[in-house]
Amino acid sequence: MKRFILFAAALVLALPAAPAPVSAQKDTLTVALVSHAPTLDPHMHFERVGILVNINMFDSLLHRSTKLQFEPSLATAWKAISDTQWEFKIRKNVHFHNGEVLTPADVKYSFDRVLDQTKKSPQYGNIRAIKEVKVVDAETVHIITDKPFPLLLERLVFFPIVSKKHVEAVGDQAFGTTSPVGTGPWKFVEWKRDQLIRLEAFDQHWRGKPPFKHLIFRAVPETATQVAEVKTGGVDIIRDVSADLIPELKTHPQAYISSTPILRVHYVNLDMRSAPFDRKPVRQAANYAIDKATVIQKMMAGLGTQVATTVQPLAFGFDPEVKPYAFDARKAKELLAQAGYPNGVDVTLHSSSVAYRPVFEAMAQMLTEVGIRATPRMWDPGPAWNKFLQAEGKATQGMYGTWGNYSVFDADAVLHPLYHNEPGGWIGRWYARVEGLDKLIDEARSTVDQPKRKRLYSQIQQMIREEAPSIFLWTQYDTLGISKKVQYAARPDEWLWLYDAKPAAR
Amino acid sequence: MLSLVTRRLIRLVIVLAGVSLVTFAILQVSGDPIALMMPEAPEADRAVLRQSMGFNDPLPVQFARFLGNIVRGDFGHSFFHREPALPLVLARMPTTLLLTGLAMGLSLAIAVPIGIVSAVRRNSAFDHIATLVVFLGTSMPVFWTGIMLILLFAVRLRVLPVSGWESWAALVLPGATLATFSTPLLLRIVRSGMLEVINLDYVRTARAKGVSEWFVVCRHALTNAALPLVTVAGLQFGLLLGGAIITETVFAVPGLGRLIVGAIRQLDFPIVQAGVFVIALIVVLVNFAVDMLYIYLNPQIRVR
Asked: Cα–Cα distance between B4 and A391 in angstroms, integer?
C-alpha cells in the first residue's frame, strides 16, 4: 500500500508544468502590494502603499524623471520670485476624471485642505512652511512660505491636486472611499478593501492615454504567494523581492528582476544619553566592528552600497569625500578598551525590520566578536514604534532601523528626523546628543542658497562620522519582480509610475 | 427542557460579560491610547483629549461605559481607517464565515464517510491509510500546507488561481487548506464513536431484525456516534476561525482575520476590540447551537 502512495506522489510531482492560463488579459496590468492604505484620498494618509496607488490617479504640480530631475506636470513652469515666494504657471486644458477643467482655484484648495489643521492631514508637517497660496490669474499661482523653504520643490512632487468642486460636493469621506477624482492617467472604478483597487485608463488625460487600459492593485500580504503569482502570471509586478528569492525569479521563464539603488539607508541609532554609548570610542568601535562588505555580498545579493553616514549618495548634500568606516576588529577592540571596557560590555539592540532580521542578527554577532556583546531583539512594528519612539522612548540602547526620506532627495529629510533634538522631533530626540548639530541642521534648512547648504551638509557629515551617533551601515536597492509580459524598470524613488509600463513586444 | 435552555442562555451571558472584560483590558494594557491617537501632539492637547474621552475616570466607570457602548454597537472609530470600527469588522464577516463554513463542510464531508468506513472495516488497508492521512494532516502547520497546495495546484499544475477572492475557483485552495487542519480530529472522533457503538446490543438487535447493514450503520449507530462529533465540531469551529487568520494571509483573502492582524500591527485598538468581540460572540453562539443540537440528538439530556 505504501508503495502505491509513493508512486502516486511521484506521479503528481513529475507532471510537466502546464502552460499558463490565458486568464490575464493583455490590456490589464496587475500589481501586488502587501496592503492597502486606509483611504484613497491622497491627502489623508502618508503610506507608501497608498502613494503608489495615488500617483497613478492624481497629478502633482511637478513630476520627477527616472533620472531624478524635476519635470513639468500640472505646473508648466516655476521660478522663485524671492526667498519666500514662488510662482507656478498652471497647465491649461487639463481635465479631471469627472470632466471638470483644472483651475488655479483647485491648486489653492488642495494646499488649504492639508494646511487646515481641523482636517488632521498626516501630510501637514510636510508643507507647514507654506503660509499662503495665492491665485494670481487664470494660470498663475504664488506659494508664499513663512521662511526660506529649500525643500518646497521636493515636496511638490507628491502633492496631488484635487478638484475643489468635487471634494466639496461629495465630502471627504466619500472622496476617500467611493469617488476619488483626479487628473491622472487612470480613473477610479472600484475598491474592495484588502482585496483589489480597480482603475481604468482616462481617455482625456493630458499626457495621452496610458498603454494599459486596466490597472489593478491587489493586496497580497505573503511574499511566497506574491512570488507564486508573478510566476503564474496572476500579477505582473511585485515589490521588495528579498535577496534569497532573486535567483529564483531571475532564471524563471515568465519573470525577470529589475533593481536600482534607492534612498533607504540602514543604521543602528545609539542611545547617547546612557552607558555604554555615551562614550564616543564605544560608538566608533561599533562602527569599526561591522564588516559591511561581507553583509552586502553574502546576505543582500550584492544589492547595497556602504555609507559613511546616514546621508545617502542620491540625496542633495551628499559629500563623497567623507568615507565609510573600514572594517577593523582590532581597532574596535582598542577603542573599547580605551573607553574603559577592556573586558567588553553587554548591550541589547532592538529591531522591527522583519525583512532584515538575518542581517540584524549577523550584525549583532559581529559586535559581539569585538566585545560589544549584543543581544538582538525583534519586535512587531506597531509595539516597537510605541515603545521606542513614543512616551517611554528609552527602553533601548540601540535600535536598528531604515529610513527612506519619504522619497525626498535631500539630506535634511534624513538628518532632521534622525538626529534633531527638538521636542516635536522624531527619532533623534530619544537617541542623538551631538553638541552643535541641531544648530547646523536648522541653519541648512532655512536658506534656499544651495551652495551654502551643500557646505553645511559637508560639515555635518564630517561631524557625525566622527561623533558616530549611529552605526552607519548601507543603502539598499529596490527590487521588483516583473512578468515578462510587461516592460518596466525600478525607479530610484521607489515609485511605481505605471504610465511608463508597456506590454512587452512579442 | 425550558429550564435547561434558560440555564444555557444564562451561561452565554456570563461568558459574554467575561469576553467584554478581556476586550476592555486589551486597551488598558496597551499603554497610553491617547499617545497612539495623537503621536505628534503636545502634551497639553493630549490632556484635553484624555479628559474629553473619559480616560481619567476610575476603571469601573470606564468599563460600565464600555459595556453600554457595546450594547449600542459602538466600539469607537478606527484610528487607521477613521471610520466606525464595528461596520468595518462586520463587512469582513461574510468572507471569513464563508471560508470557515466551507472548510467545516469539507471536513465533515470527508471525515464522516471515511470515519464510518474505517470503523466498519477496522484494521483494513483503508483504515490504515486513513490513519496515516490523519497523522499527516495534524502534523502540518496551516501556512505550510497552504504554500504547498499553491505550489502544486497553482504553480505546477496550473489548475487553480494562486490567491485572491475573485472567483469560485479561488475558494478551493484556502478552503482545502483549512479543512486539512480540522478534518483529522473529526475523522478520529467519528471512527472511535462508531467503534464504541457498533458492537452494542441494540445494533446487534437491529442486525438480527434483518435490516440492511448500511441502514444499521447510518440510522442506528451513527445517530449515537454523532454526539461527540457535534461537540468537537463546535469546538473546532473556534479553532478554524483562528486558522482562518493564517489562511487569509497566505491566500490574500480579504477576511476578518487580516483586518485584525493589520489592526494589531498598527495598534488600532477599536478594530481589535470589535473584531475579538465579534469572533468571541460567534464562537459562543455556535457552541450554544451545539448545546441545543445535543439536546435534540440525545433525549436523555432532556429528561434529566
From this structure: 52
